[in-house]
Amino acid sequence: MTDTQKYEAAQIKVLEGLEPVRKRPGMYIGSTDSKGLHHLAKEILDNGVDEALAGHGERIQLFRTDITETEMKLGQTKREDAQVLTVVDNGRGIPTDMHPSGVSAMEVVMTKLHAGGKFEDQAYKASGGLHGVGSSAVNALSLLTQVVVVRGEKYYYQAHNKGIPKAKVKVIKESDVLELFPTQAKDFVKYQTGTLVSFIPDETIFSTTEFSHKTLINIVKDRAYLMAGLYFELIDDIEKVRKHFYFEGGIKSLVQHINMNRKPLHQVFYSAGEWKDPDSPKQIAMEIALQYNDSYNERLESYVNVIKTPDGGTHLQGFKNALSRVLRDYANEHKLLKDKEAFVSDDLKEGLTAVVFIKMSANDLQFESQTKTKLNNSEAQTAVYQVFKDAFTTFLEENPKVGKTIIEKIMLSARARMAARAAKNAVIRKGALETSTLPGKLADCQSRIAADCEIYIVEGDSAGGSAKQGRDRKFQAIFPLRGKILNTERARLDKIVAFEELKNLVIALGCGINETYNEEKLRYHRIILMNDADVDGEHITTLGLTFFFRHMREIIEKGYLYVAVPPLYKITSGKVEEYVYSDGEKDTLVNKIKGSNENAKIGIQRYKGLGEMNPEQLWETTMNPEHRMLKKITIDDFDKADTAFDTLMGNDVPPRKKFIQTRAKLAELDI
Predict the structure, then answer these.
(1) Residue 284 pLDDT > 90, yes or no?
(2) Can you count the helices (H) and strands (E) in the chain?
(3) What CATH topology corresponds to 251-415?
(4) Quick one: average pLDDT of 288-305?
(5) Whole-angstrom distance, CA of residue 444 vs CA of residue 490
(6) Which of 41, 82, 122, 341 is the residue whose CA sits 20 to 30 A from 129?
(7) For 83-125, what is each residue's pLDDT tens digit?
(8) 539 CB-side CA count, 13 A
(9) CA-CA-CA-CA dihedral for 165, 168, 173, 177, to nearest 10
(10) Which residues contact 287 (CB under 8 A, 6 or more apart)?
(11) DSSP state of 662
C-alpha cells in the first residue's frame, strides 16, 4: 500500500469550538510561558479599554487574588496556590440578548472564535482585542472563567471550564454577585452597566501560572498613559497593594516620565490629529509626542489601539520619514548648517524620546502575526507622515529656539559619527572580514561553531592567566581586560570604538556594534562576564552590562549574555574541601560540620578575588559547566532597565544619590 493510499478522510481532524486554542495555544497568545500568561491579562483588560475608546466607561479595575474554595470547586482543581485575575469595567456590558445562533450573545463572545463587536465599525471605531479571539482564547486556556454583566438593573452570570459553559447564562441577585466576588464586586454592583471577567489559568497549559505584580503594574500603567483621563486601579490582594493610575496628559506625560532622569532640551511637542483616505472611508486618528534630551540614546514607543508594537511598523516609519524631512528642511531654510555639513537619519536618534499612538478601525488592522508586534498597514505610514509633518513644521516655526536647539543636537551627533567612522570601519573590517587579525590578548578556543563556544571576559592579568590555564580550550575563550572599561552610558560611539579595550572586545566577538550588528557573525553564543566577588568586581560587571545593554542589546535579547558567580569561601575540615557562594551557605556548612563533630577544626578562606585561585580551583568552581553557577541576563522590563542604567550610570548625580539613599537600608555590609 502506498503512502497516498494510507492518507484517507478519517485522518483529517476537525477541531471544534475552542479546541484549536487548547491544541495550539502559541498560535493565539504567542507562547505558554510567563509572557503568554500575562498576555491573557492584556486581552481581558483591553476589552474594557476598547469600551473606553468607543466612548463608554471611565473606570477599569484589575484584581489579583488567591483562589477561594468556591472557585476551586467550580474550576475542578485542588490547587490551593492558584491565582485568580479579575477585570471590572463600567462600559456598556457584553450584550446578553439572544444571538441568531440560539444562545445568549454573552456566551457567543466567550465561546466562539472570531466572534465579537469589533468587526463592524458601528460598535468599535478602534479596538485592541484579538478580532474576537481574545475573550474566547482566555476562556479556552483557563480552568475557570466567570463572567458577570450588569444591564438593565439585572446581573447576568455564566461560568466556563476550559472554554466549555457549565450552564446557560442566568440572572442572579446582587447578593449572589457579592458572594461570588466579595472583593472584586464592591464597586461593580454600583454600576448601571459593566462587565466583570474572572479567570484562573490552566496549569496544564502554562509553564507558570503565577502572575507578576510588577508586570501587571506595567500593563496597567502602559494603558493609563495612552488613555488620557481614563481611571485605572490595580488591587493586588496577594501583595496587599492598591495602586491608582490616571494621567490627564496622556502620552505627553509618558514622554516626561521617560525623560525623568535626563535633561530635556525643550518642552514636549504634542499633537493630536486625524487623517482621512481620499479614496475610501478609512480614517486614522493619532497622537504624537516627542522631546530631545541630553543623552546619547534613542527611545521610540509605538502603539496601535493601545497595543504596543515593539517591532514598530508602518506608523513608526511614517514618523521617522516625516521627522527627517521636517528637520532637514528647517535646517536648510534657516541656514543652520555650515558649509558642506549634512546629517543623515541615524543622526536624529541621539537623545530622541518619542511616542507614536494611532487609532484606527479594528476591521482594517494588518499585523505581521497574531501577537501584533509590527503594523503592516501602508495607509498608516501615509497618515502619520502627513499629519505629523504639518504639525511639527508649524511647531518649529512657532518655536525657533527649539528648532535651533534640536539641529545643534543633531549636528553634534553627525560630527561624532564622522569622527567615529574610521575607527568603526576598522572594527568592522577586523572583526567581520579578517578573522586572522583577532586581538593578541584573546585566548581563543578551538571550535568554530558559535553555538558551542563561550568567551569569558575577565578583569586583570592574574585572573586572566588562571582562566587561560584552567579553561577547556576546545570551547572556552578568554578575553582579559585591563582595568575598568569606559562607562558607555556617558559616551558617544566615537569614544567607544576609540577605547582600546572595547574596540578589541568588539573585534573578538566579530558581530559589529549598534547598526552594524550582525548576529550571524557572532563567534560565541555564551558571553560570560567574570569578575571578583567584591565592590570593584560588581562595578566592572555593571560597566559591562551597560555596554551590552546600550550598544549590543541583541546579545541580551537572544540570551547570550551571562554573569559568572565565583565562590565567596572555601571551607576546609580535615581532608574535606567545599566551596560556598554566600554567607548563609557558609554558616549552614559550618554548623553542619560542628554538629557532626563539635571539636572539628574548620578553615574558612574568604576569596577577595579570582586571582587568589589557582587554575584548577577556578575551573572547578567557576568555569566547569557541570559545577559552575551562571546568571543569565534577560530584559524583563525594558522601561525599568533603561531607567536603572540612566540613573546609576548617567551624568546627573541627584537621581543616583536619591536611588542609593532610598535603598541604603537594604544593602548588606561586607566586612
Answers:
(1) yes
(2) 22, 22
(3) Ribosomal Protein S5; domain 2 (3.30.230)
(4) 93
(5) 31
(6) 82
(7) 999 999 999 999 998 888 788 989 988 988 755 544 344 444 4
(8) 9
(9) 10
(10) 250, 251, 270, 271, 272, 355, 357, 358
(11) H
What stretches of 553-598 show up as alpha helix (H) in DSSP? Answer: 553-557, 583-596
Least confident of 122-131, 327-336, 443-452, 581-590: 122-131
Q: pTM here?
A: 0.74
Cα–Cα dist 311/332, whole Å = 32
In this predicted structure, the answer to whether residue 14 has a pLDDT above a threshold of 60 is no
**pLDDT for res 215:** 92
Q: How far apart are CA 216 and CA 221, in angstroms?
A: 8
SS3 356: strand
Catalytic amino acids?
459, 532, 534, 536
Burial (CB count within 10 angstroms: exposed 0-12, middle 13-18, buried 19+), residue 95: middle
Q: Which residues contact 5 (CB under 8 A, 6 or more apart)?
A: none
Q: What is the pLDDT of residues 395-423, one digit of tens each?
A: 999 999 999 999 999 998 888 777 766 55
Angle of CA points 505, 506, 510, to nearest 5°: 115
Q: Give the C-alpha separation, 661 to 665, whole Å.
A: 8
Residues in the chain: 671
Q: Are 643 and 260 in contact (CB under 8 A)?
A: yes
Q: Is 534 exposed, middle or buried (0-12, 13-18, 19+ CB in 10 A)?
A: middle
According to the model, what pLDDT value does residue 576 have? 83
Is the pLDDT assigned to residue 62 strictly greater than 50?
yes
Instruction: Give CA–CA dist 628/669, Å, rounded.
Output: 25
Please state the φ and ψ torsions of residue 611, each to the nearest 5 degrees.
Answer: -65, -15
Domains of the chain, residue spans: 19-245, 251-415, 438-567+607-635, 639-671
- In the prediction, which pLDDT does 462 show? 78
- Look up the CATH number of domain 19-245: 3.30.565.10
C-alpha cell at 504: 578589541
Rounded Cα distance, 102 and 79, in Å: 36
Output the DSSP codes for 517-556.
Answer: --GGG---SEEEEE--SSHHHHHHHHHHHHHHHHH-HHHH
Return d(Cα 315, Cα 322) in angstroms, integer: 11
- Number of C-alpha atoms within 13 angstroms, CB side, residue 641? 17
* Of residues 186, 183, 162, 200, the one with CA closest to residue 84: 200
Q: Which tens digits make up the pLDDT trace of 39-61?
A: 999 999 998 998 888 888 899 99
Say yes or no: domain 438-567+607-635 is CATH 1.10.10.10.
Answer: no
* Distant-in-sequence, close-in-space partners of 152: CB < 8 Å, separation ≥ 6: none
For residue 655, give Cα distances in angstroms to 72, 252, 353.
47, 22, 19
E strand or H helix that includes residue 651: none
Task: Look at residue 654 in the predicted model and tell me its pLDDT.
Answer: 82
- Bridge pairing between strands 283-292 and 269-276: antiparallel
Nearest to 150 by CA among 115, 129, 177, 111: 177
pLDDT at 146: 97
Residue 73: Cβ-neighbour burial (10 angstroms; 0-12, 13-18, 19+): exposed
